[in-house]
């Protein structure tokens, strides 16, 4: 195992996300509606996940509409140095923040809870134990490759719901990095956060979503055993 | 399970897994991390779980959503305005 080992499918998605950047930008600048509709359709769920972070989630759809209008207005602007993906999501983040400011609230993407460990402490031996810090309740492989497509689709719904349950500060990073494939540097710039903080939030988000997936699969296995 | 002689415990290693996946560990930390994984099947399984989670979350991107009708109409209006603006400029 090496540290440069690619993250398999995720790495491929990131490659696909950035490979046709110039072709996509050219198509949008040329006014190609079909490209624009597909571009938005593939990113709509991500935009909605982030817009749902608004103080009043019932305003999320309107915030998405305004962000799309902002994005179109900025299309003709000079090269921003951002990927077209980052440009779009920067518009969503700005709209959510602006709306919070209008309502006199604080930044919805600020962290407002104490940092919890990635895995509950009771799953490890205490420090006074001979194997202090070692697993008491070790994890098991998810083994999705042995599951039927319907189960994998169910897990996708569990993951989407897990993303929605994340607090906004973690959700925005998880959506931008792991769903939309933006780089840590782009996210850092978009959210005005140091990259180290972006990674820390990403770590917490991934840990929580992993935990939810693990819990779901455990319940499923228990139900199947009883059946 | 933690093994005598390793300098990072399982409880510690799960906290740096994202740094590892993002290739942000310093060389010495990365070597210590990988040495631990070689000797610790549960931590390898945990890393596998995290990778699977990231991969599956990434697949949400591939799904094209149905944009609500009102949003679709508004976004096409905005796009057509942009297009009229650039074509107007091109005609100048």
What's the short story on this structure?
The complex is a heterodimer of chains A (227) and B (92). Chain A is mostly helical and 227 residues long. Chain A has nine helices and no strands.
Q: Which percent range fits the helix content of chain A?
A: 55-70%
Characterize the main sheet of chain B: none
| SS element count, helices of chain A | 9
Number of helices of chain B: 5
What keyword list fits this structure?
heterodimer, A: 227 residues, mainly alpha, 9 helices, 63% helix, disordered N terminus, B: 92 residues, 5 helices
Describe the structure.
The complex is a heterodimer of chains A (227) and B (92). Chain A has 227 residues and is mainly α. Helices cover 63% and strands 0% of the residues of chain A. Chain A has 9 helices and no strands. In chain A, helix 3 crosses helix 4 (60-75) and helix 5 (84-102) runs parallel beside helix 8. The longest helix of chain A is centred in the last third of the chain and has 32 residues, at 195-226. The radius of gyration of chain A is 20 Å and the shape is globular. Residues 1-7 of chain A have low confidence and may be disordered. Chain B has 92 residues and is an all-alpha fold. The longest helix of chain B is centred in the last third of the chain and has 23 residues, at 69-91. The model of chain B is unreliable at 1-5 (pLDDT under 50). Chains A and B meet through helix 1, helix 3, helix 4, helix 6 and helix 7 of A and helix 1, helix 2, helix 3, helix 4 and helix 5 of B.
